[in-house]
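Below is how a single chain appears once it has passed through the pipeline. First comes the sequence as given, then the structure the pipeline wrote out for it. We keep one example in the README because the format questions we get most often are answered faster by looking than by reading.
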Amino acid sequence: MKPVGKIELPERMRDAPTKRVFAALAREKIGVRFVGGSVRDAVSGRAVEGEIDLAVAAPPETVMRVLEAADI
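Resulting structure:
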């Protein structure tokens, strides 16, 4: 599938805690993407509230180790 454009991420998807998670995973070269309701809400222009779901390209044990090492 070829992307047809980009959306401006709502503040909730760009806030400091979210950036911290992405940065910790990126340091270990673990791919991460937004998924689920937050994407649906962002695309439809609605406020993104509550939890933000992520998909990662690593086993849960690896992700937990990386996040714990980053004090997350």
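The chain has a mean pLDDT of 92.

See the next section for the split statistics.
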